[in-house]
Amino acid sequence: MLHNVTFFLQVEKGSGPVRIGYKACLLKKNKKGSRTSATKMRIIAIGSRVFVTSFQLAGVKGVKVESPAEALAEINKMGDASDVGLVLLSDDIGKEIRVPLTNLRAKRPIPLIFELPSPGSKKEKVDYRALLKQILGV
Asked: Which of 3, 58, 97, 102 is the one with CA 20 to 30 A from 130?
């Protein structure tokens, strides 16, 4: 079974103002390659107050954390929730817990844990070959 996670912008119109939010959709494909079902999943931002507030303004729910250990605990809690599809993590917090995050990514593909630059951070090169070797245990 192949898992394909698609992210889309959802606009909800009602009697009040228009709400814009982001949702993740997990699409399962059968052997022939056609879609069989879709499950809506949530996107969560984890990081500093500024990082989380930026995503909350765009309609993404967030968890403000002060330490990398606190962030790792939140990610572990979200792993048990089946409705979380994507975790956006501030890279300044992700740097210090990169090894445990890589281990989590290797054990379970969902939620997808993606590190994004925090406000004011510098561009950093990522050695994807070393990361892949760590995930595969080579």
From this structure: 3
Cis status, amide bond into 111, omega within 30 of 0: yes
Q: How far apart are CA 50 and CA 92, in angstroms?
A: 12
> How many residues can be counted in the chain?
138
30-87 tens-digit pLDDT: 566 555 556 778 889 999 999 999 999 988 999 999 999 999 998 888 766 678 888 8
pTM score of the predicted model: 0.67
CATH assignment at residue 75: 3.40.50.10580
Residues in Cβ contact with 57 at an 8 Å cutoff, skipping those fewer than 6 apart: none
Is 104 inside a domain boundary? yes
CA separation for the pair 97, 91 (Å, rounded)? 10
Residues of the domain holding 73:
42-136
